[in-house]
Structure formats: structure tokens, C-alpha cells
Amino acid sequence: IADCDEALTLVKQLTATTVYHGAIEKTLRPRIHHPSKQYAEAWVNKGDVSNKRGDFDAAIKESTEALLLDERSSAAWAALGRAKTALGDHSEAISHCSEALRLDPRSSEAFSNRGAAKNSSGDYAGAIEDCSQAILLDPVFADAWMGQNMSKARETDEKTEPNEALRLDPRRVLPWINRALLRIKRRDYDGAIADCNQALYLDPQSAISWRHRATAKARIGDHEGAMADCNEALRLDPNIHNAVELMPE
User: Fold this and answer.
1) Strand, helix or coil at 242?
2) What stretches of residues are TPR repeats (predicted)?
């Protein structure tokens, strides 16, 4: 981030940009020869970090800044699509990722992000196709494996564990949470608790991990532990679904 910011201090002298509600106004000062693509890449990198942090509004702004400097940046279109998916704008997300693929047909990131948008919009077959293509291009792309697994589960109602995603990137919280939920449904409560423990080791602020662990503990009769986990889930997210109902009387 620091390196990106240092690079971007230079471009601020060249471009003034206002971004609001998806509308863009751009005023270019007298043209000065400068490596605009390099500055665009710095904005893309910032957008990627914002996406990973869950700051999707910032990711949209930063990806848009990149596109103002280089409208042919496939990575910027893909990052913009990812942020739009997270904010529920699936139609625009698919459009942005498709533009990324038009510019770079071998972008595994764009295929994976478009797959996520299709999955969220209910096009599970399309999501599986896109995620599978991403995996062909990058066999160790954990997000693509995760997206493929989720879409297959929703399309066929076949609950398969996200083991490949966990093998490729065991530091991500979401696959641990998803596997814990699947294990609860299979009545493997000890396995679910172990997965929730790992998720909470990676992110102690994950309310849904506390909530799933409370469920598993309640099912094995550990009501005191379930109560403690429910309280923590509610402290982190007072609106978390069904946490109060899990509390033992």
C-alpha cells in the first residue's frame, strides 16, 4: 500500500478525478508524458487490497481511477467486477468481468470473478463454467476452486466439502466456515467445532464462526459453551441470524 501511495502522489498532479454514485467526471490538465499504465497498475493494486479487506466502495473508486488512466486494463475491470458482486450489483459485475475477458481472454481472475457474480445471481451452470475455466488457466487458484464448489453444491444440492480450496490456501476463513456448516448438517459436530476453531484462529472477529460453533456445541450437549459462543457472536453482530434461538434456556 505504501509503495502504491508513493507512486500515486505523482499522478495526482496530472489528473483530477471526481467519482460519485457510479458517475465519473474527469478533467485532464495539459498533457505531460508520463507512464500512465504504471500509475494505473498502482491503483489496481490498491483496489485489490481494498477488495480483500472488504472495503468494496474503496475498491470501486480505486479501480475506476485505474480505468481513467488505462481503460484497457483487464485487471482493473476484473477488480471492479469483484467489488460490484460483493455489493449485489451482479449485472454490472458480469459486464465488467466480460470486458476484462475481452481485453485478456486468459485472465483467470476475471473468469473467477464473473463466476462469483453468476453464482450470486443464480446462474450456477454459468458460474461452474467460468470457475472451471479459471482453474484450467490457474490450477492453484483457491478462489476459483471455492467458487466452483459452491456453485456445484447449489446447482445439484450435492454438499461437497471445500477441501481443495483449503489445501491451496488454508489461511482463508471462508472455506473453514463453509466446511463447518456442511459438517453440522452431516452431524459431524466434533469436526465442525474443529473447523470453527481454525476459522476463529484466523479471524477472532468472525461472528458467523462463533455462531456455527455454538450450534455444534449445543448439538453435543455443551450448553454452557454454546451460550458463551452465542454471546460472543451477538456481541460482534447483534443481528446475526438465529443466534438468540440457539441459546439454551
Assistant:
1) coil
2) 40-73, 74-107, 108-141, 207-240
